[in-house]
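#dry-run=false #mode=assembly
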Amino acid sequence: MDPLLDLPQLRTFYTLAQAGSFTACARRLNRTQSAVSHAMTKLEGLAGAPLLDRRGRELGLTEEGRRLFLACEQAFATLDAAADDLRRHQPHARGRLRLGATVEFGSSILMRHMQPFLAANPELEIDFTLRPDLLAPLLRDDLDLIIDCLDHPLPSLKKTTLFRETYVVACAPTFRKAHCLRVPVDLSGVPILSIDKAGAWWNRFLMAVPDQEQPLMDRIIEVNHIRAMIHAAIEGMGALLVPRYSVLEELRRGDLVALFPAICPAEDRFSIYQKKVKAGQEKQRLLTRYLQSLSPAEFGS
Amino acid sequence: MDPLLDLPQLRTFYTLAQAGSFTACARRLNRTQSAVSHAMTKLEGLAGAPLLDRRGRELGLTEEGRRLFLACEQAFATLDAAADDLRRHQPHARGRLRLGATVEFGSSILMRHMQPFLAANPELEIDFTLRPDLLAPLLRDDLDLIIDCLDHPLPSLKKTTLFRETYVVACAPTFRKAHCLRVPVDLSGVPILSIDKAGAWWNRFLMAVPDQEQPLMDRIIEVNHIRAMIHAAIEGMGALLVPRYSVLEELRRGDLVALFPAICPAEDRFSIYQKKVKAGQEKQRLLTRYLQSLSPAEFGS
DNA sequence: ATAAGACATGAATATGATTCATACCCATGG
DNA sequence: CCATGGGTATGAATCATATTCATGTCTTAT
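#status=ok
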């Protein structure tokens, strides 16, 4: 009877009120800012009254918004508790699961977040395979489930998107100072770290740079391993382009500094792929859900 | 973080638990039984445990289902209260709204359900126009909003579906006895009431009858008004084909009896149409929502 | 000013929920 | 025992809607 307040928009509203900004809310929900905005427009439309108080900075709630928020708080707490309850009463999934992932993601992120899952599912035996080519082993049934940033649009596979991976250009602080790196052109003639000698690795960055500002990168140092590249960069060997998640620590500690924040290289989307015929299995669904539930923040995106 | 229990499926589950059967639930929600079934399949999948206990007759809830139901009860009560609250605190919509509807639906159903809305919105002046051709006045802006069973797929119109209208063949009990009406062929040679002399009115019925059982309807009595036709039928003048909602009372009281329940003539779908440019207006949204909220049961479908 | 950050918005797209058509199951009554 | 009817399940097609993409606007800070 009351189609008003049922919709996914409410979850968004609730998260938004907690997050304090559209952008932050979007990050938490692994959506775009635009999606949050659309959702709120619609919700306010349905509610028939403004719920949000957008005065420039800090967004607040209107009186109505506040009341609605309280209701959400209570309602969602109840539902979430019920969900927990359901999960708790489930028998443990059993069996073996062979999980594949890209090397860098797997080693730097994935491994750091699997322990809680393993602990919660002691009957489940999980094996990890980190390697570049993941599709073939998946199709060969050497792996049950892979996490990959390449797109595999096969009808026999079920795809579950996880998060976007953003890239950063970075270098050691001293390196930046030494070469006066302020805009992309400044990279001309400067030592560049790349997976491949040809510099194709950097294309995703170059494509995001306006034509007039294209640097001429002629001093490329090939390093075929991301972690190695990062260490090289920390030592001041050159500038590098890497997934942001792989250098979160280094950025935080100041070992590396991000260059040209205005330039946003193309993102990759990490997804889980699994054979449709096997995606229904309890253990696969469980793991998929767990991986999804790791908030994007955990992945550092 | 918890994508499990957020979905519209929960509302369905909640309604289902109350309704006691998939079909009943579907009716309440103005969906098909199939939709309910799919939703429950998905919900149980997400929950990871069966929630419903389908043992032939009466469907019950499993232990998990019962717990979930309690949570739903509480959560939805909270949210619904919040929704009410929002509505109550809204200033009354003001203005005038010219509502058009088909004659039979308007007079027999619509009018019986508008009073609460009018009372709740004293500042709103609503005029009713019941007539067959509704589209033209709507486009001419002689009407703001029409309820029609004809499809008007114009890009400038916003369509909001309301409910399905089912048709019944019926006649007076004595009439049935007199003519031994058991299967459609028995209508051959029997007096038939129709809006049009040619009997095109009956096509929706004839199309639902298998070829071998087609009656030869050669005694057609033309009556160009549904209500008049109903009175004629009650008096035993002939068999008629009418929207079920228009004879609910007569069927209940036994003045008329439904014939051939196995035959289901094509249904009509009633929808609200309004110009997109005006659909955003508070008063129009309000009325649309109200009409939608009248459960299909109220419409007798 | 100008740049940077945060929100809005329209069109295109992707992800779903819903329907349709049909099959299945189980009681009931010729 | 098999037809019949009421109720549910299911796969494919469809339709609705949420989300993204590509912008635009507005505000605050430099």
